[in-house]
């Protein structure tokens, strides 16, 4: 009850108008009905010496200061001098619902152990499963809230988060509820790993699809599967995803992270929203993805964190694939919640331009989450989610490697940070 009324008061505040004025630049990607690809991916619209006017949680107008009309009534003003506005960032791939950490594993990897070896030895994902099962729903909610605060500080105003560290009925459903309660977009990653109480992946899937899916489908918006050697094979992933689609969930896949095991053809066949990772994707996979409507979600922080090859992003972009960028924030393979850092990696390691990077973690990421009509652009009618960069040029988003580039974050027309 108390929380409900607090939310009501916040919503009430959002009814007043906010004018962000005297901005050095306002920058937004283009908007189309489908994810941006080809030349459009890199064509952002920049307005110099500009303002953004927000009202009732939406963007009312964007324009040049010299065209700012007289505004009647109560308008809060925010000085944008020396700053650039970009859309609130959209992180379309995180594992933000977990307990514990893997700092010990991080040290072992630093000394030479590989991620796959640690996973095969019962560490890795399964270590986080133990901690997450022990956390309880309140603990999980506190964890997602904490991680949401970290993301917000880096300019992320919309985030997806997956379950997948419970792998039993109660903890999977508690994870999805914790994500939804915290404002995240919940994805059921029911097929992340085979938990120790099951002898085979098929037995585990019998349980997950029979016992967890019916309730998970009421909370989650999408389903995801780890299609990889040592996790689930293509036939198992197909079975899981077909059942999830029949229950009304959109489809995502973790694919081609270490090996090409059929994720791209399966994603295309099933009409998935995205296939994510792609570090091991070769030329045929690039061509197939480019010829499809499936978005390739690139996670360079994961490659960096694991010391693994980067995905063939430039080849994907040049072949005309629709790509998005995300953090993959999780305790094992990418303990990184910063989309600005991911944009820096996109420009320095993936051969993408700053404009392509911005489109990839705003409008295209919003498409992956089914929110492209409201999120990911600065244009009238979109949700008033903005990041103000402490920079004279919006490209500092990627240019200022690891720097304090985010000055202010506005969510739904309210100053959130
Ligand atoms: O996307 N690869 C599978 N899942 C996560 C990592 C999860 C973990 O290591 O805890 C990923 O990298
Ligand atoms: Fe992931």
Description:
The chain has helices spanning 2-14, 103-110, 115-120, 125-133, 136-153, 169-181, 201-219, 234-246, 263-270, 283-290, 300-306, 313-319, 339-349, 354-360, 363-368, 396-399, and strands spanning 17-29, 44-55, 58-64, 75-79, 84-87, 89-91, 156-162, 185-191, 222-225, 250-255, 274-277, 295-298, 323-325, 386-389, 406-411, 414-415. The radius of gyration is 21 Å and the shape is globular. Helix 5 (136-153) crosses helix 6, helix 6 (169-181) runs parallel beside helix 7 (201-219) and helix 7 runs parallel beside helix 8. The strands form two sheets. Strands 1, 2, 3, 4, 5, 14, 15 and 16 form an eight-stranded mixed β-sheet that branches. Strands 6-7-8-9-10-11-12-13 form an eight-stranded parallel β-sheet. With 417 residues, it is of the alpha/beta class. The protein folds into two domains: 6-87 and 377-415, Urease, subunit C, domain 1 (Roll), CATH 2.30.40; 90-337, Metal-dependent hydrolases (TIM Barrel, Alpha-Beta Barrel), CATH 3.20.20.140. 53% of the residues are buried. Mean pLDDT is 95; it is low at 1-14. It is 38% helix and 22% strand. The longest helix has 19 residues, at 201-219. The chain contains 16 helices and 16 strands. The chain binds N-(iminomethyl)-L-glutamic acid and fe (iii) ion (FE). N-(iminomethyl)-L-glutamic acid binds next to helix 4. Fe (iii) ion binds next to loops.
